[in-house]
Amino acid sequence: MRRMLRLAGAGVALAGVAVLAACTHEAGLLGLNPDYRFGYDDKGGSAALSYGLPNSDDLALMLECPKGTGRIELSDTVRDKTATSIVLTAGGQKTTVPVRQELGNGDNLGPELWTGRLTSKSAALQAFRRTGVLTVAGGKARYVITVLPDRKAGVERFFRECG
């Protein structure tokens, strides 16, 4: 019994250290699932880049456009709930995208989804295309995406298809 109490106490102490460590990191920087990847998807009449778990609906960010239009719809599930815009930053370039909340339907509401529109020519997206690194910020929450070398061709294809 005494050993169990010591183990429980150690667990509480470790949890406290973890909370303090989280507080010392840069404000709002989120550690998303390390298995998240950027993936390109050719949907026939549209092209999409998604950042999340491969072959799943577990996504943080989606960029989708009707081919050849240059019009991109951004969908994000990770942000400060008070945010009214998503700020994309890459290579020193920033693009602010006003967003609105999309409500789920039926029994499968899923995560809250915020959507906004921008063009493929936006400064941050063009810098992301060159650098492969994108910071996504929604209010106080933000995360950094780095495209792995084996995924860079998909990013380039997305921008070619979008126009």
List the topology elements.
Layout: H1 2-24, E1 37-42, E2 46-52, E3 59-66, E4 71-76, E5 85-90, E6 93-98, E7 100-102, E8 113-119, H2 123-131, E9 133-138, E10 141-146, H3 152-162
Antiparallel strand pairs: 1-2, 2-3, 3-4, 4-8, 5-6, 5-9, 7-8, 9-10
Brief sketch in words of this structure:
The chain is an alpha+beta fold. The chain has helices at 2-24, 123-131, 152-162; strands at 37-42, 46-52, 59-66, 71-76, 85-90, 93-98, 100-102, 113-119, 133-138, 141-146. It has a six-stranded antiparallel β-sheet, with helices on one face. Strands 6-5-9-10 form a four-stranded antiparallel β-sheet.
Description:
The chain has helices spanning 2-24, 123-131, 152-162, and strands at 37-42, 46-52, 59-66, 71-76, 85-90, 93-98, 100-102, 113-119, 133-138, 141-146. The protein is an alpha+beta fold. The chain has one domain. The radius of gyration is 19 Å and the shape is globular. Residues 1-27 have low confidence and may be disordered.
